[in-house]
Amino acid sequence: MTKEVLVSICGLQMMANDENSEPVEVITAGDYYKKNDKHYVIYDEVVEGFEGTTKNIIKLHDDCVDITKRGITNVHMVFEKNKKNVTCYQTPFGNMMVGIDAKDIEIKEDEKDISVQIKYALELNYEHLADCTIKMAIQAKDAGEFRLLS
Predict the structure, then answer these.
(1) Using CA of residue 138, residue 108, residue 56, residue 100, what is the dihedral sign?
(2) Residue 145, Cβ neighbours under 10 Å: how many?
(3) Domain boundaries, the chain
C-alpha cells in the first residue's frame, strides 16, 4: 500500500428506542505506514463550528483497533474483541466516561486496501447507550475508484 491513502469511516449507532438510525460517513485523505506488523493511518479532522483540527491516529493489529484523537477532542479508544475498555472522552462541552465493549472485529487486507468492521456496545458514564458498528476502508490513492461504505 502507498503512503497516501483515502480513508472512509462509516458509523452507525442503534439506540434502544430509535428506529430511524442513519449511518454517518466521513471520507478524507490520510497517510499510511506499516511498522512492526501494525498498520497506522493518520488523518486530520475538521469539526464544523470550531477552529483548529483533530489529529487522528488509527492503529490496526490482530483483533485490536486503537484510535487516538488529539486536538478539539481528545480520546484514546481501544477496541479489543471480547474485552471492555473504559476511557475519558474530552470534548469542548466537557468530559465523558465512555465504555467500549467490542463484540466483533474483522480486519481484511490486500495489496491496495484494508477494510475494517467493528461491532461494539457503547456505554456512557457506565450506562449502556447504543449498539454500534464502525466500517473503515483504507485505500491507496492511486488504486482507482474509491468505494463508499454506506
Answers:
(1) positive
(2) 5
(3) 4-143
pTM of the model: 0.88
Going by C-alpha positions, the residue among 129, 111, 131 that lies closest to residue 119 is: 131
Q: b or e along 86-110 (b: 16 or more beta carbons within 10 Å of the residue's beta carbon)?
A: eeebeeeeeeeebbbbbeebebeee
Sole residue written with cell 479532522? 45
The fourth-level CATH superfamily of domain 4-143 is Calycin beta-barrel core domain (2.40.128.20)
Average pLDDT of the segment spanning 43-58: 90
Residues in the chain: 150
| Model confidence at 150: pLDDT above 60 | no
Mean pLDDT of 13-35: 79
How far is Cα 123 from Cα 52, in angstroms, rounded to an integer? 28
Select from 48, 47, 96, 95 the least CA-distant residue to 71: 47
What cell numbers appear for 73 in the block? 477532542
